[in-house]
Amino acid sequence: MRNGRVGIRWAGRAGDIRRDPIHTKIPHTHPRSLEKMWTLFHIFIYTFFLGAAFLLIRHYTSPPPSTTKKLPPSPPRLPVIGNLHQLGELVHHSFYSLAKRYGDSLMLLYIGSVPSLVVSSTEAAREIMKTHDIAFGSRPDTRMFRAISYDLKEITAAPYGEYWRQAKSILTLQFLSNKKVQTFDGLREKIMGECVDKIHRCFLSNQPVDLSDMFSSLTNDITCMAAFGRTYNEGEIGRKFKKVLKEFSEVLGSFYFEDSIPQLAVVDRLRGLSAKVDRVAVDFDEFLQGVVDETLSKRSKNPNNPVGEDGMETFVEALLKIQKEDIIGITIDDDVIKALLLDAYVAGTDTSSSVLEWLMTELLLHPDKLEKVKSEVRKVLHGKKDITEDDLEKMTYLKAVIMETTRLHPPLPVLPPRVARHDVKVMGYDIAEGTRVYVNVYAIMRDPKVWDKADTFLPERFFDLSIDFVKHNFELLTFGAGRRGCPGRIFAMAINEKVLAKILNEFDWSLPSGVKREDVDMKETFGLANHRKVPLLAVGKPVSP
Ligand code: HEM
């Protein structure tokens, strides 16, 4: 899931990767001489004012717009940049406060010259993702996304159509289905076991555990093992992987003028961003090609054995098999394989670790809820350490805790942008073809008209509501909805539920000594997903030695 690069948001511990759907901040450029900076600054200023003058003249000399169209409410905007100056680094907060003033259901902004519809209510979300799901079933086609998504072959970036449909079905069947997710069980156990050992070691050396870092490595390792057949966290290859990820996210976190204010595209070139986008695409491609080549080489040495752990078929293997059999209705060339691998990695890791990080934050801040969920887990498991699907089914409070956490801290607070494929009327407003649509699920999931005590962490609320991730009625939008909804829910929940049950079963958790609940910093930062700005530290006391 990404947002911005049409929606998939990247970050990661591997990353401190930051980005948001539309724009966050122009990244720091590499150190350069003051003189060069000064020249760049001048070029930027001249270009900016020339562009502004051009647009102002055009604006005032064009005939007035037709009055027959009924547009959603909009805040006032500036020439050239539109409403860009009103968007801060955490765009969901900016949208939320603007919506309160200008349009708490639908609001029309201009990001540069691009009309952008911000959706902030359950009813409006239902209109976009159910009533007009096909009309809004595509993603914006931008130069940046084309460059880094194998020419829009990544599912998240792909336009609505046969390719997207087939590619999504391959990802779902070959990597994310219930059956497939079960085959990764041994892998999850092994990696969770390593985490348990780490928590023990920290306890014995009187150190708190950096849970943010631990969850990030855990989800990274599980996804890499299941998709690529090995991890990439050590040695030279590990360093390279982290560097590529970091640069990738820097690129995604940059505001790319060409895609929103085409008149200022020259600025992207002058500050080296265009070149950086192309370089990152090449570096990532080299990395993914390495994954494919390594798999092919292992398979040629041992053609009858799958290359994954314990005979498990990895996603890359499944894709190579489909390519060889050539029985799908679309051409599976090497770029398609790499694009789908990128989808699986990018969409799957940071989102899950964000859920775990906020889960433990909320539980540590609410000791009564922590006690309640811990008691449930231990009652169901009754002293045993391995956790089965049946056990998890019985942990209804644990499931409610997860839903409530993602309601308050959705990993993707603004859904990856959709785009109107043709003119369409939504809630009586005229939405023009090409309008980008941003569903602010953060606003929807904190809407006091829908949620009682909307800002309070209250997992019990789900016992009285007939809402969950599956049968939501556009109130709980953690995984989005409609045709473009997330296909990775089962994969992600298999990790989140098990990890939470495991660490609550085997450890008693508390904040590090001397840290009070009110000291816990709740600031957010955006990478590939919405994370804590400050890592979460906690002490896990083993239940039995
Ligand atoms: C807790 C974990 C996860 C969360 C919260 C999450 C959330 C989301 C959201 C909100 C969207 C956008 C949906 C929309 O626009 O309506 C999305 C899309 C997507 N997600 Fe996830 N996701 C998670 C895990 C995963 C995993 C594990 C995978 C695959 C490995 C995955 C693959 C995708 C893909 C491919 C899309 C794009 C779908 C499309 O454009 O048709 N996600 N995800």
What's this entry about, in short?
Keywords: Heme, Iron, Membrane, Metal-binding, Monooxygenase, Oxidoreductase, Transmembrane, Transmembrane helix. The chain is 50% helix and 8% strand. The chain is α+β, with helices and mostly antiparallel strands.
Structure commentary:
Belongs to the cytochrome P450 family. This is Cytochrome P450. Pathway: Secondary metabolite biosynthesis; terpenoid biosynthesis. GO terms for molecular function: heme binding; iron ion binding; oxidoreductase activity, acting on paired donors, with incorporation or reduction of molecular oxygen, reduced flavin or flavoprotein as one donor, and incorporation of one atom of oxygen. Keywords: Heme, Iron, Membrane, Metal-binding, Monooxygenase, Oxidoreductase, Transmembrane, Transmembrane helix. The protein has 545 residues and is α+β, with helices and mostly antiparallel strands. The protein contains 20 helices and twelve strands. A four-stranded mixed sheet has the order 2-3-8-5, with helices on one face. It has a three-stranded antiparallel sheet with strand order 4-12-9. Strands 6-7 form a two-stranded antiparallel ribbon. Strand 6 and strand 7 form a beta hairpin. Helix 8 runs antiparallel to helix 14 and helix 9 packs antiparallel against helix 12. It is globular and about 70 Å long. The two termini are 40 Å apart. The relative contact order is 0.17. The N terminus is likely disordered. Protoporphyrin IX containing FE binds next to helix 5, helix 14 and helix 20. The site of protoporphyrin IX containing FE has 28 residues, from helix 5, helix 14 and helix 20.
